[in-house]
Specification:
Elements (H helix, E strand, L loop, with lengths): L6 H24 L3 H27 L5
Helix pairs in contact: 1-2
Length: about 60
Amino acid sequence: MILELSKVECDALVSLLTKTISELKEEIHRTAKFEFKENLKSEKMLMENLLTKLMNVSMVGGKII
C-alpha cells in the first residue's frame, strides 16, 4: 500500500500519535485490570510503530509503502 501525505498532514499525524501515546502511558499506569492493560499496551506499541515509520519517511521525504 502506498500512502502519500503532505508535510502538514504528516506533521499532524506525528503530533496526534505523540499525544495519544502519552495519554496511553498514563492510562496504562492507572489501569488495574490485566486484560485491559494488555490491550492498551498493544495499542501503544502499534502507535509507536506507526510513529516511527512516519518519522523515518518524513525525514527522507518519501512515500509510506
